[in-house]
């Protein structure tokens, strides 16, 4: 007989998922109710308001997509692009490459602006691309590149897009709740995130928000969005402002209890306090790593506090060290991804896992594993 599954109690300090708090885990065990139950519809309204707070937006079309961050990404591209369109896509890590895939699968052309992995997106190159491609209708970039631990200057990139009248698609999967993110003040148009990073919710939900400009573009589409599930005009019927909600798909009811609880916790702590906590723990971790003789892979100004890329010292066996942390300390840290595989470790201090206790645990465990 196959037995029930009881996972060990790990400490998740990789690139996500991050540790889910007991309070959020407990919310999952509450009774399932119907996804059109009036009480559930009220919960949906609260989730929307809480997401508007997290994204710092008053966008009416703000909701959690019932699927992981990649679905949020795809929702932004398939709704804003049509066959024959052009999008400028910035790539400085893995996820810019995934954006390119999305553009091309829409039958659109991706004009790539490339930067080194571990460096931020260069606004000068973006300004050049916008000037040279007046046919472009979208600028897409990743705010917090999880593959490298690098932040890009989202505010400046959005400003450039505004000056050229193009819409911005911004990936905030790793930034939401961990670093400053101001959707309305910066003027981003289609923004997606994930539940499993700095929100510390269970994986599998993708918060998204669309500006009135983006909604206008969606409503003016000449052709149907090729994805039925991610067609925002259909999803709006379920999540829209109208109190008469139409069935679109069966929402992941208990996962949305968890998202609600996560966002209530964020509201209780306050966004600014959560951001300061991420910064404080990051500083402590970096000080400890440097005291051990390790060096950071990203220049200080562009480091993500929630995802710390550390250079693996010469002669150290990457997989052996990570294996030891998992076996002896129940501690997960991330391997380098793509071009940085075998060269860096990625140490996450995301959401509920961004705690002093975890900083100390990680430093002690790494010191032991490196002996
Ligand atoms: N974008 C970024 C920056 C990510 O870090 C991730 C996941 O790590 C994704 C998109 C995709 O999210 P998911 O794995 O939830 O589909």
TrEMBL record:
The lineage of its organism: Bacteria, Pseudomonadati, Pseudomonadota, Gammaproteobacteria, Cellvibrionales. It comes from Congregibacter litoralis KT71. The keyword NADP does not apply. Pfam families: Aminotran_5. Belongs to the class-V pyridoxal-phosphate-dependent aminotransferase family. GO terms for molecular function: alanine-glyoxylate transaminase activity; L-serine-glyoxylate transaminase activity; L-serine-pyruvate transaminase activity. PANTHER family: ALANINE--GLYOXYLATE AMINOTRANSFERASE, AMINOTRANSFERASE CLASS V. The modification N6-(pyridoxal phosphate)lysine is found at residue 197. This is Alanine-glyoxylate aminotransferase apoenzyme.
């Amino acid at each position: 007989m196959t037995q029930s599954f009881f996972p060990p109690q790990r400490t998740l300090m990789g690139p996500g998922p991050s540790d889910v708090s007991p309070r959020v885990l407990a919310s999952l065990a509450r009774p399932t109710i119907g996804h059109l139950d009036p009480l559930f519809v009220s919960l949906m309204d609260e989730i929307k308001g809480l997401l508007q707070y997290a994204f710092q937006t008053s966008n009416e079309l703000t909701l959690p997509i019932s699927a992981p961050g990649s679905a949020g990404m795809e929702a932004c591209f398939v709704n804003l692009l049509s066959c024959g369109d052009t999008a400028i896509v910035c790539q400085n890590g893995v996820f810019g490459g995934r954006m390119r895939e999305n553009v091309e699968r829409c039958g659109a052309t991706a004009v790539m602006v490339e930067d080194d992995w571990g460096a931020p997106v260069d606004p000068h190159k973006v300004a050049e691309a916008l000037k040279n491609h007046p046919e472009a209708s979208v600028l897409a970039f990743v705010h917090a590149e999880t593959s490298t631990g690098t932040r890009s200057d989202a505010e400046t990139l959005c400003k450039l897009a505004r000056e050229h009248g193009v819409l911005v698609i911004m990936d905030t999967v790793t930034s939401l709740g961990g670093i400053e993110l101001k959707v309305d003040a910066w003027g981003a148009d289609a923004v997606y995130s994930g539940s499993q990073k700095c929100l510390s919710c269970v994986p599998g939900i993708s918060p998204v928000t669309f500006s009135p400009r983006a909604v206008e573009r969606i409503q003016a589409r000449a052709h149907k969005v090729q994805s039925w599930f991610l067609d925002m005009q259909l999803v709006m019927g379920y999540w829209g402002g109208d109190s008469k909600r139409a069935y679109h798909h069966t929402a992941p009811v208990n996962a949305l209890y968890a998202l609600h609880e996560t966002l209530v916790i964020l509201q209780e702590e306050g966004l600014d306090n959560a951001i300061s906590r991420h910064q404080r723990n990051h500083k402590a971790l970096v000080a400890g790593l440097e005291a051990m003789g390790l060096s950071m892979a990203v220049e200080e100004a562009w480091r993500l506090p929630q995802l710390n890329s550390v250079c693996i010292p010469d002669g150290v066996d990457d997989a052996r060290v990570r294996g030891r942390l998992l076996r002896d300390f129940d501690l997960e840290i991330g391997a380098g991804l793509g071009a940085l595989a075998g060269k860096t470790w990625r140490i996450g201090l995301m959401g509920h896992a961004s705690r002093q206790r975890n900083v100390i645990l990680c430093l002690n465990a790494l010191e032991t594993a490196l002996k």
